[in-house]
Structure formats: structure tokens, C-alpha cells
Hints:
By secondary structure, this protein is an all-alpha fold. The protein has helices at 2-14, 21-25, 31-58, 61-68, 73-98, 105-115, 121-163, 170-231.
Amino acid sequence: xxxxxxxxxxxxxxxxxxxxxxxxxxxxxxxxxxxxxxxxxxxxxxxxxxxxxxxxxxxxxxxxxxxxxxxxxxxxxxxxxxxxxxxxxxxxxxxxxxxxxxxxxxxxxxxxxxxxxxxxxxxxxxxxxxxxxxxxxxxxxxxxxxxxxxxxxxxxxxxxxxxxxxxxxxxxxxxxxxxxxxxxxxxxxxxxxxxxxxxxxxxxxxxxxxxxxxxxxxxxxxxxxxxxxxxxx
Length: 233
């Protein structure tokens, strides 16, 4: 056991990691426990989000959102946020499985790649741990872009109504203001929903990235340990 510990410490040094990476950097908590807390933390936040959605439905806020944004962009953003949130839960569960003390498929695959002298072993590990996150980050960025698109659409509708004005009679001005209010509502609703969705998804993905970083670093360190052990007389 002491020999394995010395090899592990030597491997962490050669990998450019602190010797006490698992104790110091993770606050004396192993990655498996951290991954479990992350998953259950996500489950708690998802429950709060579901309760908030039910509360909004009960008070008619969803109907107000649909009526206030006839373009449907706000609804698309909300659905996209729900889908990505569900994916984050699945990903958190997968990271939890891969971080178990008994090892996971990612660790075994990386060590197998090293044993076959594959130079792209680290790149393959990075793809397994972080590859799907890049697609999720793209969809997260898409929420804010859809919100900006809704803002542009709203202002286009407002400007188009101004261009139709032929006179400044009181009745026509009142009708014009009502029509302009619809365009302003689209701009504000889409911007608000886009910002909230972007912040919500960004927080989840940031936590997933942090856990994936630590898991990848631990797997890389084990790979160096195995390489050092193979070279040891």
C-alpha cells in the first residue's frame, strides 16, 4: 500500500499536479463524494425549478408569456432550457458513475489506450469527459441569442407600425400605441426569458465542467502512476 502511495505521489509530480491534490484541492473530500453532492444538488435545483413552473402556471404567468409574445420565441427558449437541464441531470449521473472508487469505463479506456501506446489517449479522455459539454454550451449561448433575436423582432414590429402612420389624429395615435406595445412586449419577454435561461444553464454547466476537470486530472494522474510503475525495476 505504501509503495502504491509513493508511486501515485511521484506520478502526480510528473503530471504537474500537487502531491496532495485529492486532499488539498478537493477539501479532504474525494471525487466520488463530490460527484454525489453535485447530482443531488442538481436534483434539488430541478425540483425548485419544477415548483416554480407549477407556481407560474397556477398564477397565469405562462398564459401571460404566451399572450405577450405571439412570436413564440420565449416558449422556444423555455423548452430549450428544460431540455438542456434534463441533459445536465443525465450528465451529472454519468459523472457520478465514472467517479466511483471502483473506477469507471473512462478510466479503464484511458489506461487501455496507454497500454496500447496510443499517443492520442489524453485527447480521447478529454473528449469523453468534456466533449458533450461543448454542445450543451452552444445551446446555452443560443438562449441569449434567441432573446436578442426576439428583441430585434419586437423593435422591427414597432418601427413597421410607425411607418404605417398617416396622420396624428387621437384615435389613430391610440391605436398606434397599442400596436407598438405589442412589439415592445415581444422584445422585453424574449430578452428576460433568454437572460434567465442563460444564467440557469450556465451555472449547471459550470459545475459539470469543474467536476469533469477534477475527474480527468485524477484519471491522468493514475495513468502516470501506471507508467511509472511499469518503468520501475
